[in-house]
Amino acid sequence: MMSESPEYFIGIDWGSSNCRAALISMAGGVMAAKDSPCGALTLRHDEFAAVFEQLTGDWITRHNVLFALASGMVGSKQGWLQAPYVNTPATMESLVESIQWFDQRIPVGIVPGIANYQDGRVLDILRGEEVQVFGVLKAYGISGGLLILPGTHSKWINVGHSRVDSFRTYMTGELFDVIKKNSVLKYALGESQAHPDFIEEEFLAGCHMAFQSSLLHNLFGMRTRSITTDVKPQSLDSYYSGLLIGEEIRDGLARLPHPGTQKVYVVGSARLVGLYQKALGLHAVEVVAVDEKIAFAGLSAMANRIVEHKLKGG
Questions:
Q1: In this structure, are residues 306 and 96 in contact, taking their beta carbons and an 8 Å threshold?
Q2: In the chain, N or C terminus with fewer CB closer than 10 Å?
């Protein structure tokens, strides 16, 4: 008697500037993965199907793939198919129920984002981070806590009882680039590479200063220092990173619903997580470092919930 072939789904973390796809077993194991520079905001609407086929076509041909789940900017107005936001408090169940489905070679589902709905209005939005949140809950066996997802638009997400209760966004990464490339500080920071030699002492000094004075004043202080001393651009670059990350942490810690938080989960690249670990360490906050690929664990949890619904006739 022949055994049935194993079942898989395809998970896609489809952001603004790049795309990461994986063939995932229903048990949660990543069997294969591919990266593409074809981010959702780099494509015309009629180009998504071709990129999807290029990334997943051979997997669909060779394996028993039930469906694909895609999260991120692929579900925005500029994406493949717009998926609406789910209001907080948002559970995995509410996200799964709002997935937007359409047919390609296999069913494709676009995961919705989340809107931070408080006091009758939307205060904030996220798209793509929701799968990372539920990936952390699954991987670490927790039902709540504070998650920080640093990046172009950093997210501080409060989770309780396995649901996203609230969150706050900081334009830390984007502001870093805008000021470095388009302000008078570009002369002080120089034409340094994307990630110049990191000087920890300068970074921590910037983090400390963020708690002492306003960001607007501190930024001009960098110009003053560049003119009146022989400080090197790479030193100012590390200090600049500390100022912005420190400002984010100053406000984030002050607004926590449960002051005195001692542990946070920071999700991202090793470089970014390392910076936040150093900055948060100044305030006696323990950091659990989480790889950004945790998104696939979140998509896996959603895929299993979808299969459960189908088996129950939902």
A1: yes
A2: N
